[in-house]
Amino acid sequence: MNSRTIHIAELAVFTAAAFIFSYIESLFPLPLPFPGMKLGLANLIIVIVLYQRGFLSAFGVSMVRNVLNAFTFGSLFSFFYSLAGSILSLCAMYFLKKNKHPQFSLIGASAVGGIIHNIGQFLVAVCLVGFSAILNYLPFLYFAGLIAGVLIGVLANLCMKRLSFLSQTHQQ
Fold first, then answer.
1. Cβ count within 10 A of residue 142
2. Which of 10, 56, 144, 164 is in the most buried spot, having the most CB atoms within 10 Å?
3. CA dist 1 → 9, 13, 50, 53, 87 (Å)
4. 21-51 confidence digits (pLDDT tens)
5. What is the dihedral of CA 16, 17, 20, 26, to 10 degrees?
6. Angle at 135 between CA 132 and CA 136, to 5 degrees
7. Are the C-beta atoms of 116 and 104 separated by less than 8 Å?
8. CA 87 to CA 63: how far, in whole Å?
9. pTM (2 decimals)?
């Protein structure tokens, strides 16, 4: 097999993992006072792909996952919410990763990604229902994104260490 084929196969596995995480998360909705809030387990895969394979790979996995989620458990509205959050958060995390800001580790970039993801969804909601109708929701979205982003960043950091260890032992 050539390296391109292997790369495509790896991205397919990452996409499947992200889709499965989304499905699992849909089975167990969190008892939160605001609709639609969740941890975002699929973003664990997106963060790992961003840091392991780069922006374009992470973007591809994210977009395919968003389409699969919309067709499987969502709607056109949920697709637009997810799309806005995904694109904005991925761009923010990539910017922090690319510029290697010393104060932003993978966990910090994931935390910013979580916040920006929710802000992207907020912007879609503003277009649909108006700013004043959901303004009070913004602080909750901010803190939910921060907490989810930190948790996803910690998990991604642990997974990447484990993946690094596995690839080192496999090469020996």
1. 15
2. 144
3. 11, 16, 24, 19, 32
4. 999 988 887 777 666 678 889 999 999 999 9
5. -120
6. 125
7. no
8. 8
9. 0.89
Output the pLDDT for position 154. Answer: 96
Q: If you compute the radius of gyration of the chain from its CA atoms, what whole number of angstroms results?
A: 16
Q: How many residues does the chain have?
A: 172
In single-letter form, the type of residue at position 35 comes to P
> What tokens does 22 get?
């989304």
Summarize pLDDT for 70-106 with one digit per residue, the tens: 999 878 888 999 999 999 999 999 999 988 766 778 9
**What does the alpha-carbon distance between residue 69 and residue 37 come to, in Å, rounded to a whole number?**
16
CA-nearest of 57, 137, 61 to 97 is: 57
How far from the centroid of its chain's Cα atoms is residue 31's Cα?
A: 21
